[in-house]
Amino acid sequence: MIFDWAYALEILPLLGRALIVTIQATVLGMALAMPLGLVLALARRARLRLLSWPAALVIEFVRSTPLLVQLYFFFYVMPGLGLKFSPLLTGILALGLHYAAYCAEVYRAGIEGVPKGQWEAARALNLSPWRTATGIVLPQAIPPVVPALGNYLVAMFKDTPLLSAITVVEVLQQAKIIGSASFRYTEPITLAGVMFLVLSLAAAALVRYTERRLQLPGNRP
């Protein structure tokens, strides 16, 4: 099979528009997953069991069930409960919740990696839990876990083709539509793969840059 560059340029705008949908789902999904994951991590470490147990249950349940099942639940079951969203918004919510559970465990590992002396010093200074978390613990806990969070960003980007199961036309689905209409799959699938590769590498570079910017002074070479 020969790659037709003229045909590739012809279908490129269609794939580009679908790629915007893929990027939207990834960016907004991660924008939801990161703060929600932090909330779940803090709730799981709370001394109050009314907070820690439900948070632990949510985290383990979400991590133990496939993303595709969660997408179907949000898209087909939730409307019966009175919550109906557009396919794209449904996909963003499902991606955000799914990866929030993983981000929560990453945050928890970072928080537990803060030396106990920092917590004891905060208590000695009679700092409030809020001041302790925002002023002492989180500034030390988050920078070391940036690479792990970045890995989930790339993983979420590569999971966006699952949104086609709930009728979202992202870049890979658009490539399949073009291929089924023209019976020429080489160009659209190749272009979709190249787009995923380029943006995944760009996201990884952004994560490395962020890691360097957030690196703790004491850990700098």
From TrEMBL:
InterPro entries: AA_ABC_transptr_permease_3TM (IPR010065), ArtM/GltK/GlnP/TcyL/YhdX-like (IPR043429), Ectoine_EhuD (IPR014341), MetI-like (IPR000515), MetI-like_sf (IPR035906). The keyword Transmembrane helix applies. Residues 15-207 form the ABC transmembrane type-1 domain. GO terms for cellular component: ATP-binding cassette (ABC) transporter complex. It is found in: Cell inner membrane; Cell membrane. The keyword rRNA-binding does not apply. Keywords: Amino-acid transport, Cell membrane, Membrane, Transmembrane, Transmembrane helix, Transport. One of its GO terms (biological process) is amino acid transport. Signal peptide: none annotated. One of its GO terms (molecular function) is transmembrane transporter activity. It is a multi-pass membrane protein. Pfam families: BPD_transp_1. The chain crosses the membrane at residues 20-43, 189-207. Its main location: membrane. Belongs to the binding-protein-dependent transport system permease family. HisMQ subfamily. This is Ectoine/hydroxyectoine ABC transporter permease subunit EhuD. It comes from Verticiella sediminum.
